[in-house]
Amino acid sequence: MHFVFMGVAGSGKTTVAEHVAEHLGLPFAEADAFHSRANIDKMAAGVPLTDDDRWPWLRELAAWISAHDALGESTVMACSALKRGYRDVLREGAPGVCFLHMQGPSEVIQARMTARAGHFMPPALLESQMATLQRLGPDEPGREFDVRSGVEDLTAQALEYVGGCMRAADA
After folding, report:
1. Whole-model pTM over 0.70
2. Are the beta carbons of 29 and 77 closer than 8 angstroms?
3. CB–CB of 79/171 below 8 Å?
4. pLDDT of the chain along its 171 residues, tens only?
5. Residues 6+ apart with CB under 8 A from 51
């Protein structure tokens, strides 16, 4: 099983995903680390990425999932995965890719983005990310989590969900 924690910048996907991966001892990938320098510079300048900017990045992420799947390893990834088409590319990496959507009101997420330091993604891009976001479809494996819960509560909820998915896959 492969678990992608998705959502807009500032939603807490990386923090919760890291906790889950550490707790379960699973390989973890932060999708931002796979971006090209050009993509990072573009976002840092406040320019939203286009689909053409994202396709090579998404294919690289799918390849990471595929490589771990070939080793028989489950994984955890933090990736915006804002559009269904982006999630479709990630699902090409292996069967059993499941999404945990960290979602909530833009005001809550905006406040978090404003308070954090050292991240290349400026709060000004949140509006474009919210406009791009396509919530999980009813046929997409995954679940939504309300980011108004604290990190500890979100981590507990995510661990319960991931554990259930893994038990179901083993059955």
Report:
1. yes
2. yes
3. no
4. 999 999 988 788 999 999 999 999 999 999 989 999 998 888 888 787 889 999 999 999 999 999 999 999 999 999 999 999 999 999 999 989 999 999 987 777 776 666 555 555 555 566 777 788 899 999 999 999 998 888 899 999 999 999 999 988 877
5. 85
